[in-house]
């Protein structure tokens, strides 16, 4: 079957857009988009692939000015499609049934036992959207009642990352500042027969909960539990020797109701409270009580907590405290990556990654270091809405959103990976001006070409004596000889359908290293090939870049300068 002119026209239009967005058009991406519109072509993949290959080859030979001129014919159409897509993605309903204007109060409750990651971003930005929608309030609440893992370092990191993300809060408070109040509510729960002190061993408690069999302490009198609770607070028990348990139903279908732990003993130095306390509340008691006392009307959290909602509401009922609305949403997870603080700490300890800001991670620090903007993180976090349907996102989705945001300001530069010398004679010292940014603008980088250049070896090896090629964005040269180096001569400035090759003046070349970032995991295992390093030369303009600057090395992609001294760039 012959591929129609209409389909070829569509492929060409899509290839132009692909090249504008990413520096060069990719056959696979174009074929996928054509098939999405014309699935009836699937039986003719061979013919379609051949037609698309020809189109992509033509587009990738275009000078940037020619490419932009060709694309301008379709820019309005693509902008309209982008607006329509954005409108659809923004139609997610960020609202809560029963919420009233001016009366919504919610909170973001991180535990400071590690650095903020992409999984935190979804509930956080939804809470911020709700605050805006209802003219409400958003509090920052640190759930810090586990002295083993929590540090001031992590509190400071959260505050810094939240500020970078553009978030502000109406109030900030800490669970550990409220222990005396929580002890009072624990005693009230004992008095109302809703809690009891248990001194059984951990294995016995676990077996009892699994089998639905109560231990001997469940039938203790209130007075006995009060006495044991007092001993816990006085320090009569060591770590793990006694706990306060919920007095629930051991046969409950919801295992969260089978007498879970409410308070436990840990003699450890707390980053904020020092050694003042050693009886610590669990999340199941601490968070609902503190939420209620602080006037929280709405709790937004991932649906993995749904089974615990019943327990939290039962605790508030027992204590006569006001209950918030609870809205469950799906988690935000990135395929082939980890957000588990325990796993990240282990990888750091094992030397597999360099730290919490390793660019392969999805911590906010890592994403920021890699060049992901706060706006892209927000859009990505909100893109799945408030539904509960679980799905695992691909890192490429976030990167794609980010590229669209940075494209207009990313400087275009050349990079030579495998340098081959080209000696160009008869130039007379031609000064070449090349645009730094796509489209219109008056920002240029200028070079004087008067002799030796570097070109990519893969370009040089296909040249033959007598060929005429164009030094991209510069002028034409005629090839005189090809060996270990290429000798050529200046042949004027006549842009046409010539092969275009990237080049760098030898005297201006800057030695660089590119870090190509891949997925952290392959299956369930750490991928030791998750960073690939490419050494080569960037054009002289790059020596003036500052750490954090983002560039597009043409035909390679977007990169952020991570280390100015080493001239090391991280891929986007």
Task: Please describe the structure with a list of short key phrases separated by commas or semicolons.
Glutamyl-tRNA Synthetase, domain 2, 4 domains, 7-stranded mixed beta sheet, 23% strand
Number of helices: 17
Largest sheet: 7 strands, mixed
| Cα-to-Cα separation, first versus last residue | 39 Å
User: How many domains in all?
Assistant: 4
CATH hierarchy, class of the largest domain: Alpha Beta
Poorly predicted regions: none
Outline:
The protein has 572 residues and is α/β, with parallel strands linked by helices.
Description:
With 572 residues, this protein is of the alpha/beta class. The chain has 4 domains: 5-89, no CATH class; 105-329, Rossmann fold (3-Layer(aba) Sandwich), CATH 3.40.50; 334-409, Glutamyl-tRNA Synthetase, domain 2; 411-571, Ribosomal Protein L25, Chain P, CATH 2.40.240.10. 35% of the residues lie in helices and 23% in strands. The protein is built from 17 helices and 29 strands. Strand 18 and strand 19 form a beta hairpin. Helix 1 (5-22) packs across helix 2 (27-37), helix 11 packs across helix 12 and helix 15 (374-382) packs across helix 16. It is elongated and about 100 Å long. It starts with a helix and ends with a strand. The mean pLDDT is 92.
């Amino acid at each position: 079957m012959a591929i129609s002119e209409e389909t070829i026209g569509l492929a060409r239009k899509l290839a132009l857009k692909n090249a504008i967005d990413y520096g060069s058009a990719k056959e696979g991406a174009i074929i996928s988009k054509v098939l999405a519109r014309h699935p009836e072509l699937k039986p003719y993949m061979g013919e379609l692939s051949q037609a698309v290959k020809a189109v992509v080859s033509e587009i990738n030979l275009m000078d940037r000015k020619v490419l932009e001129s060709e694309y301008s014919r379709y820019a309005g159409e693509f902008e309209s499609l982008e607006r329509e897509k954005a409108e659809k993605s923004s139609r997610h309903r960020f609202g809560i049934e029963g919420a009233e204007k001016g009366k919504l109060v919610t909170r973001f409750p991180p535990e400071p036992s590690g650095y903020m990651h992409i999984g935190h971003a979804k509930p956080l930005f939804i809470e911020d959207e709700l605050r805006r929608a209802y003219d409400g309030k958003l509090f920052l609440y640190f759930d810090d009642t586990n002295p083993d893992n929590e540090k001031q370092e992590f509190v400071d990191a959260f505050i810094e990352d939240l500020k970078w993300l553009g978030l502000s809060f109406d109030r900030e408070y800490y669970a550990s500042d409220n222990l005396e109040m929580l002890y009072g509510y624990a005693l009230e729960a004992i008095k109302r027969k809703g809690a009891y002190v248990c001194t059984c061993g951990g294995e016995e408690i676990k077996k009892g909960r699994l089998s639905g069999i109560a231990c001997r302490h469940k039938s203790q009198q209130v007075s006995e539990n009060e006495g044991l609770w007092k001993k816990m607070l006085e320090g009569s028990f060591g770590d793990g020797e006694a706990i306060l348990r919920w007095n629930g139903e051991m046969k409950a279908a919801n295992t969260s109701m089978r007498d879970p732990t409410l308070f436990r003993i840990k003699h450890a130095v707390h980053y904020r409270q020092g050694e003042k306390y050693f009886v610590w509340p669990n999340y199941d008691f601490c968070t609902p009580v503190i939420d209620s006392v602080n006037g929280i009307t709405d709790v937004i959290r991932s649906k993995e907590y749904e089974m615990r909602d019943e327990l939290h509401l039962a605790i508030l009922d027992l204590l006569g405290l006001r209950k918030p609305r609870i809205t469950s949403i799906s988690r935000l997870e990135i395929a082939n990556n980890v957000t588990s603080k325990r796993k990240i700490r282990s990888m750091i300890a094992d030397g597999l990654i360099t730290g919490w800001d390793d660019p392969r991670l999805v911590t906010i620090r890592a994403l920021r270091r890699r060049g992901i903007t706060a706006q892209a993180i927000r859009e990505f976090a909100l893109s799945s809405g408030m539904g509960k349907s679980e799905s695992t996102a691909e890192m490429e989705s976030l990167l794609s959103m980010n590229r669209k945001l940075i494209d207009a300001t990313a400087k275009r530069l050349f990079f030579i990976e495998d340098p081959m010398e080209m000696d160009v004679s008869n130039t007379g010292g031609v000064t070449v001006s090349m645009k730094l940014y796509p489209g219109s603008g008056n920002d240029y980088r200028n070079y004087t070409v008067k002799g030796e250049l570097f070109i990519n070896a893969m370009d040089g090896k296909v040249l033959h004596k007598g060929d005429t090629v164009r030094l991209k964005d510069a002028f034409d040269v005629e090839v005189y000889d090809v060996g270990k180096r290429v000798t050529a001569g200046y042949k004027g400035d006549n842009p046409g359908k010539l092969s275009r090759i990237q080049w760098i003046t030898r005297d201006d070349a800057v030695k660089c290293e590119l870090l190509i970032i891949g997925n952290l995991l392959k299956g369930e295992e750490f991928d030791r090939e998750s960073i690939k390093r490419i050494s080569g030369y960037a054009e002289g303009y790059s020596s003036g870049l500052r750490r954090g600057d983002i560039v597009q090395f043409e035909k390679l992609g977007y990169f952020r300068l991570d280390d100015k001294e080493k001239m090391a760039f991280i891929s986007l």
